[in-house]
Each structure stands twice: as structure tokens, then as C-alpha cells.
Amino acid sequence: YVPPQVRNAQETLDDKKREELGRLKKMVNGLINRLSEPNLSSISGQIEELYMANSRKDMNETLTDILMNACVTAVAMPARLMMEHVLLVSVLHHNVGIEVGAHFLEAVVKKFDELCKSDAEGKECENLLALIAHLYNFHVVHSLLIFDILKKLVSIFTEKEIELILFLLKNVGFSLRKDDALALKELITEAQKKANTAEKKLRDQTRVRFMLETMLALRNNDMRKIPGYDPEPVEKLRKLQRTLIHSSGKETELRVSLESLLSADQVGRWWIVGSSWSGAPMINDTNSKTQQKLRIGKVSSKIMELARKQRMNTDIRRSIFCVLMTSEDFMDAFEKLLR
């Protein structure tokens, strides 16, 4: 039972909150509507001020909603407009905090997954994929996520997926090659296998041949073979990004997999520092009992004997002891411990 006066107080509080959120939404909407390359600096500054004046949660939700409404439409969005919106997210991600980019990324990826499973006729999937591609271009997210998405699309391999693979490779293919050539090579091999085993109707399509040619052009670093490939707009905006952010881009990249993002509600968001978790235990008892064997390379029996004398009685203690005793210097020890 809630007494009437408490009930009234709660209702007025809710109304007040709703009014505040409405006002905030109007302000952010006004800024996003005016967004363009020349005024990006002033608009990002104004949004940063709003972040200082309001709760992060409200700001993240409001900003994500407005950007999703602006960018995810049934018609294909102009690439330039897309880049400017993502660049704004990237600047806020670096200057305000990584939870800005993380919140936006999670919303985009979940929406993309949901639309891929449904048979949506519009261009929403391409628009969402463009957002993810540009989040990678502007160092908000690591290439790990892009490879996860590509692997998923290759594993399904229908007309719609082939279209999306081509779209993604055209946008970020050469950056992926620079970041992780080996993973790209494996992906190309997988796609070739899939194309060979696909049914004849799909295999004879010019689109499949075009996709394989695009992949080979990427592997051979041949930019001329990819029609419409123009890295200049991204490069120009990257230069602008460097002038707007106060820190270097690499250390704030979110190294998060597709699976982690899709199951964030079940297993928590480990990629955001300080995010609270109020769900079920993440590791069940059976997993914790099987201890992981650590690879520490070949260590002499003398060191192992020393470890035993020092009562290093678990694998992890022994491996840490061996690392500390056999490292050349502190950097070497640091690298080995990380591994």
C-alpha cells in the first residue's frame, strides 16, 4: 500500500522528470539537426556541456534515440551525413567517456541483429551497418566486431547477406587488411568455400562473383578493382577528429565481440568501467571447478623445483612465479604476464 501523499509526490516527481527529459530531447534534437562538418566543433562542445549538466544515463539514452531516428531510415542515407553523425559520437566517446560510444554501439548492433533476422525490405540494415563501419573508422570499436559480423554474414550466405558483405568490405576492407591481414585472409577462404558449396542458382549470380573479385582485390591490395572506393572523405574527417579530441584514439577503442554485445543484458557489460551488474552469476559452478591450464612455454625443471619449494601449489601461481624468475626485464615480465 502506498499512502496518497507519497503517491502524489511520486506522480509529481515523474511529471517533473518527464518534462525535464522532454526539454533535454528538444535541445539535443536541435543541435543534431544543425550538425554539419563546419560546426561540428561547436556542437560537440555544446553536447559536452549538456553531459556535464545532466545525468549520463539520460544523455546517453536521449542522444542514442535521436541519432537512431536520424540515421536508421527505410531509404539509404547519404554517406557524408552518416559519417558526420558517427564522428560526433566518436568525439564525445573520446572526450566525455567510453560509455557514450558503448551505449550507442550496443543499440545499433542489437537493432542490426533484430532486422537481419526479420525480412525487412528497406535499407535499414545497410544504414545500421554503415554506422558500425564508421564507428570502426573513427576508432570507437575494434576490428574484432567487424570480423564477427562478416563471419556471421558469410555463414548465412543468402542474397541479402552477400549484399551486406560487399557493402561492409567497400567501406572498411582496406582498414581491416591493415589491422589484421590474417583474419581477413581466413574470412576470404571461408567465403570462397561457401560460394563453391552454395546451390547453383546462387553460385551463378554475378553478385557472388563480384563479391569474390572484391575480396581478391582486397587481398592483393588493389584499390582500382573496387568501383566507387574513395577513402578521401573518411581521411578528411579523421583529420578533423584529431583536432577535436583531447586524447589519442587507440586506447579508447572498445575491443568487444558481437556475442558479448548481444548478450549484454544477461552477462553484464565488462567493457564499460564501473558499469553495475545486477543479474544472475556469470559463471556457473561447473566451470569454476575445472581450472584452466596455463601455457607458460618451456620452463627448466630447476625453476619448477624452486616453485615447488616455494609452495606454489596451483598452476596459476607456478606460472606467475616462473614468469617472474625467467624474464629478462620488467617489460618482458609484463608481456608474459599479460599473455
From TrEMBL:
The keyword Transport does not apply. One of its GO terms (molecular function) is RNA binding. InterPro entries: ARM-type_fold, CWC22_splicing_factor, MIF4G-like_typ-3. Residues 181-208 form a coiled coil. It comes from the Eukaryota. GO terms for cellular component: nucleolus. Pfam families: MIF4G. The keyword Coiled coil applies. Keywords: Coiled coil, Nucleus. It is found in: Nucleus, Nucleolus. May interact with EIF4A1, EIF4A2 and EIF4A3. Interacts with PPP1CA and PPP1CC. Plays a role in targeting PPP1CA to the nucleolus. Belongs to the CWC22 family. This is Nucleolar MIF4G domain-containing protein 1. It comes from Lophotis ruficrista. The gene is Nom1.
